[in-house]
């Protein structure tokens, strides 16, 4: 694939990813996955080595795990704050 086509695809994926991240919720895995995929594609273009493709699934799953961990942390923090205020309605 031509390097310019790859760069255009990467920029497009980053734009789509940030659209989902900022217009939906910051913990949407789809938005993070687009960003991670675009960064991985840029990394592959820069490296120009086939062995780099092995790391792409790891980056993709990390893009899923990070927002899920953040989401769990945010809900736990909200529950603690609601508990301090004496409210039991934190769902």
Structural summary, described in words:
Helices cover 78% and strands 0% of the residues. By secondary structure, the protein is an all-alpha fold. It has one domain. α1 (3-23) packs antiparallel against α2 (29-47) and α2 (29-47) runs antiparallel to α3. The protein is elongated. It starts with a helix and ends in a 6-residue tail after the last helix. The mean pLDDT is 65.
In short:
This protein is mainly α and 91 residues long.
Q: How does the major sheet shape up?
A: none
Order of helices and strands: HHH
Number of domains: 1
- Provide the gyration radius in Å: 18 Å
Count all strands and give the number: 0
Helix content: over 70%
How far is the N terminus from the C terminus?
48 Å
Structural class designation: mainly alpha
What average pLDDT do the residues reach? 65
Notable characteristics:
91 residues, mainly alpha, 0% strand
Could you outline the blueprint of secondary structure elements for this entry?
Blueprint: H1 3-23, H2 29-47, H3 55-85
Helix pairs in contact: 1-2, 2-3
